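Q: I'm writing up a methods section and want to include an example of the input and output format. Could you take the sequence below and give the corresponding predicted structure tokens, formatted cleanly so I can copy it straight into the document?
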Amino acid sequence: MSQDICVVVPTIRHHECMREYFANARQHGFDLDRLFVVLVTEDFCDADAMAEMLEEEGVDGAVFDGTGREEWYAAQGIGDYSHLVPAASHAQTSFGLLYLWAHDRFDYGVFIDDDTLPHHDADFFGTHMENLAFEGEIETVSSDEDWVNVLYHNEAEHGLYPRGYPYAAMDESVETETESVDDVVASQGLWTNVPDLDAVRILMDGDLQGQAQTRTSSEDFGEDFVAADGNYLTVCSMNLAFRREVVPAFYQLPMDENEWDVGRFDDIWSGLFLKRACDVLGKTIYNGGPLCEHNKAPRSTFSDLTNEVHGLELNEHVWEEIDAVGGDADSYEEVFAAVADRLAEGDYGDWENGAFLNYCGEFMRDWLDCLDELAADEADREPVAADD
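A: Here is the clean output for your methods example:
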């Protein structure tokens, strides 16, 4: 089979985790020749060791530190858009999206965080691909708050809400039914061990080390599910597969590197863009397996809180802004452009750091322009040596 999956891994610590993912693929008979692995790192990291790891594993890929990314932008003729991907931020996953978009051999993307490991009893890559191909009956979840807690299966026992879930939408009444779906464009795998919580919820759980006292296991997750139309959910990029078509509506926003010091909402808000586009276009985000083991390293909970607090009020409202526009769009680009215009031109002076939404809207406009530039000149571009 041809090389059709671009695996994007933002890493400054534990790139060796990818050996476990490759071993999982071999264990379950998944063809590693389908993968091209893009390791997104920094100049202060050992990019040579990362490249050696890929070579030892016999897996095709490339390593891009800060210098390498700048060289790639120049080679692709998009140097004017390098500001779209912040340095030393998890939002660098957007670089992987640009790389995927610039190479039309990729039909799929996979995001993996370097503090995760696959569960040995499940075919990690194979299950994601099966989810993206799924057609049939599946549990559909909704609530009276128009939000779905992806940890809802055992919420009565553990009381957890994931990072990015609005506080105002808690204590919701959940309804489930069975529906037929036939156009899955994203597969969100969930996580055992350290739950993906925000700093406020971690503090409430009594943990000062940025993790959580309450842990999750496979038993906390039930059947796979989708969120009903008009219902939003948190999308975490630590364990996520998606179709190429969603890239225009899946930009990971410029977190951390901004004057408002807003961080840690890149994948959360990109998930809101994607869910709105899916609802408008009749597409589906699949949630559940394959599970991964999340081994978040200890760090100050208050450090995470410092990164998150500047965007907490915005997170309570931004989904409503997204939900208000794009309903008559015919493409991901049109939905995303409508949201970009709404945010860029909105008056958010009543919200803490509301001007950050205007800033995001302008970056979102640039994102669409950048993708257009990549698509327009792709046939005339020579590949960069590190790519292939």
